[in-house]
Amino acid sequence: YAATPLSDVAAGAGVSLTTVYTSVGAKSQLALSLVEFINDEADMASLVAAQFAATTPHELIAANAHLARVLNERCGDIIRALLSAAASSPEVVPAAAEGRRLHREGCHAVAARLESMGALAEHLDVARAGAVLATCTAPGAIEQLTAEHGWSFDEVEAWLTTAMVRLLVKS
């Protein structure tokens, strides 16, 4: 990110630098627009709708694991680039923070839904259950399983479903 001038982005897109500035804005705004792009590319609306459609705790967690899988399978490279850029470019920090906030809020909503179903494990409150879910489904965790340990996205999704049911749902 830091080493790539906006003129290179424009050239890569086949448009003028003026077009980039008028359509997206400065480089930091381009980074922030990546969060929206990621949500569109992963079809987040459908993935979230599947969570709302779930009628059992297992279905809810399976839908959340599927969301994490699809998000990382389709957009993991963009997410990693955004997080990497935030480490060295302060203007990207808000975009990375927004992605993390959305992730935390989504996981908290799943935990709250488990509680409303009367299914949340007794040793957990919504905040802790949301934190566990957010940690286990974080892009870094999924990348570690796939890139470093060679798991397929099918294996990650299956493991997340099984592990989160065991960790978060009453037995």
Summary?
The protein is mainly α and 171 residues long.
General description of the model:
The chain has 171 residues and is mainly alpha-helical. 78% of the residues lie in helices and 0% in strands. It has 9 helices and no strands. It has helices at 6-13, 17-23, 27-41, 44-53, 57-88, 93-116, 126-136, 139-148, 153-168. The longest helix has 32 residues, at 57-88. The radius of gyration is 18 Å and the shape is elongated. The N and C termini lie far apart (46 Å). The model has no long low-confidence stretch (mean pLDDT 93).
Number of strands: 0
Helix-and-strand structural type: mainly alpha
- Provide the β-strand percentage band: under 5%
Globular, elongated, flat, extended or rod-shaped: what is the shape? elongated
Helix content: over 70%
Low-confidence stretches are: none
Structure annotation, total helices:
9
Name the helix and strand elements from N-terminus to C-terminus, one letter apiece. HHHHHHHHH
Topology:
Layout: H1 6-13, H2 17-23, H3 27-41, H4 44-53, H5 57-88, H6 93-116, H7 126-136, H8 139-148, H9 153-168
Helix pairs in contact: 3-5, 3-6, 4-5, 5-6, 5-8, 5-9, 6-7, 7-9
Task: Describe the structure using short key phrases.
mainly alpha, 9 helices, 171 residues
